[in-house]
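Checklist before submission:
- one chain only
- standard amino acids only
- sequence pasted in full

Submission:
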Amino acid sequence: MRIVAGEFGGRKLKSLAGDNTRPTTDKVKGAIFNMLGQYLPGGRVLDLFSGSGGLAIEAVSRGADHAVCVDRSFPAINIIRENIAVTKQPEKFTVLKMDAKHAIAKFTDEAQCFDYLFLDPPYAKQQIVDQLTEMLSADLLSKGAKVICETDISIHLPEQIASLVQIKQQTYGISQVTIYRNEE
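Returned file contents:
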């Protein structure tokens, strides 16, 4: 696994051992950013099920200003920190050890707002629609924010979730990538 492009492009990233995580492949990561545009015009990123931190690091490498990486696993947090160290710019990242529910509550209390949201939950625990609805209710997504969901192909996400409108969807092997834009 590596950083595909941008300022940190080509640098190697570590991934977690075992079957508990499913890191986004370089091919899928490259495809996601081809759909978003090769480079991001700044903005704040939230990677809610960060795993190795690869998506958040890729986003910062391609121009995002800051990324928040959230994961509930200590081994994942350690790998995320090691991978962030590869960038030599740790100030561009915040790492939080907590589950998605507590993270959403924390961001709501702090009135944070994000321009890019990556949701790549473990396949067995898909709660994407509920989490997005909660985040929209709390105004955690800016107008025009892009939400990138990576799911198993058996998961069918709706074309619209409140103010989120699906703008792209592609399948890559057993993975499906769905991108929404916040219209409010």
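Reviewer check: Residues 108 and 120 are 20 Å apart (CA to CA).
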